[in-house]
């Protein structure tokens, strides 16, 4: 009998979902009586695996915290990293007979306090996305939203209290999307994480304000920009008229200097060391 872990987002152990399942290849068969095992963290876990039709099965070794037996394996103490799918494989020494079965192990961990990202303001008529997540829950948490302490239904149009709002929410990802935002959407929003184990955990309440597009403010900003640009152009024109951009320097004359080396003269003659002309 052997066991191997298959990679996934988390390391999990999985068997089939029936009460008693088996898979037989050749004349051997492998069975599990509990294909879906759920155990709290730091508790022992037993993954059952039995077989028939094998003359001499070969059990490989595993970690020190796991005990092997002819009826399966037992974890002395599971952690959240042990969540995953495990496969029990049995074969005889000749390799002519082979069988396997899988068991799902879910290590139960309560959710932690979720983190939310909620805009403080949103423009009416635009799209706004609110997000919620937590990283500890096993199995993964589902997310529920509240507005001003009132649970938000999946379909706002089917609830009179939320019929004026247009949104969609995804319990798996924790996204709450307003498309479009309405004036009614102003309020305090809270997210709650639940995974069926331990107490549900709720985030802090964050207020989102739905506001009209400030057309007057935009027009005023454009006017101020145009006025400043006009002053800049006027200043450049004034400097040009005053001659600040005229680079011509008046009242200066060019000078020419000529240097020449003295010719060789005999002794006694006058020697000119240098000459120049200005």
UniProtKB/TrEMBL annotation:
Compartment(s): Cell junction, Tight junction; Cell membrane
One GO process term, biological-process aspect: establishment of endothelial intestinal barrier
Membrane topology: Single-pass type I membrane protein
Matching Gene3D superfamilies: Immunoglobulins
GO annotations of cellular component type: bicellular tight junction; plasma membrane
Superkingdom to which the source organism belongs: Eukaryota
Kinase found in the keyword field: no
Alphabetic keyword roster: Cell junction, Cell membrane, Disulfide bond, Glycoprotein, Immunoglobulin domain, Membrane, Phosphoprotein, Repeat, Signal, Tight junction, Transmembrane, Transmembrane helix
Residues covered by the Ig-like domain: 28-106, 114-207
Family of the protein in this entry: Belongs to the immunoglobulin superfamily.
Complexes and interactors: Interacts with the ninth PDZ domain of MPDZ. Interacts with the first PDZ domain of PARD3. The association between PARD3 and PARD6B probably disrupts this interaction. Interacts with ITGAL (via I-domain). Interacts with CD151.
Name of the protein: Junctional adhesion molecule A
Gene designation per UniProt: F11R
